[in-house]
Amino acid sequence: MGENYISCQLDKGSLNISEEVIIDVVKTAVCEVDGVAGLSYTAGAEIAELIGLKTVSKGVKVQFVDGKIIVDVIVNVMYGSNIVQVAREVQEKVISLVQAYTGIEQAEVNVHVSGISFDK
Predict the structure, then answer these.
(1) In terms of CATH, what superfamily is 5-117?
(2) Which candidate, 10, 107, 29, places its Cα nearest to that of 65?
(3) Taking the CB of residue 114, how many other CB atoms lie within 10 A of it?
């Protein structure tokens, strides 16, 4: 289990949510979008390094900065799908689920498309 937590100070105390919990929510959201072949596990290592992912295998990075959740997602898109449309749907779905599950209204999602997957 992750040791990093997103912490918010509330009126009656603090709220601490493991980054792993939010990563699981993000993975669920991404898998629900048509046209997404999956998270990028091996491709996109250069992008992962640029955005500071410690483990490329996750394909998701979560940060909490100034009261806002910032999510970076690296995905592969199915061949024949509109890449921009799929990326926008990923953004909308991830923001919607993260806000619903955490109650934190401020969220930003950066989608990095690292490859295209073809049917076998």
Answers:
(1) Cation efflux protein, cytoplasmic domain (3.30.70.1350)
(2) 107
(3) 20
Q: Computed over its alpha carbons, how large is the radius of gyration of the chain?
A: 15
- List Cβ neighbours of 69 (8 Å cut-off, separation of 6 or more): 6, 22, 62, 63, 98, 102, 104, 106, 107, 108
- Residues 29-85: pLDDT tens digits? 999 999 999 888 654 555 656 666 555 446 898 988 888 899 999 999 999 999 999
pTM for this entry: 0.79
Amino acid at 97: L
| C-alpha torsion angle, residues 28, 70, 98, 84 (rounded to 10) | -60
- Name the residue ranges covered by the structural domains of the chain: 5-117
Give which of 120, 119, 41 is closest to 76, Cα–Cα: 41
Contact call for residues 69 and 62 (beta carbons, < 8 A): yes
**What is the phi-psi region of residue 103: left when phi exceeds 0, alpha when psi lies from -120 to 50, beta otherwise?**
left
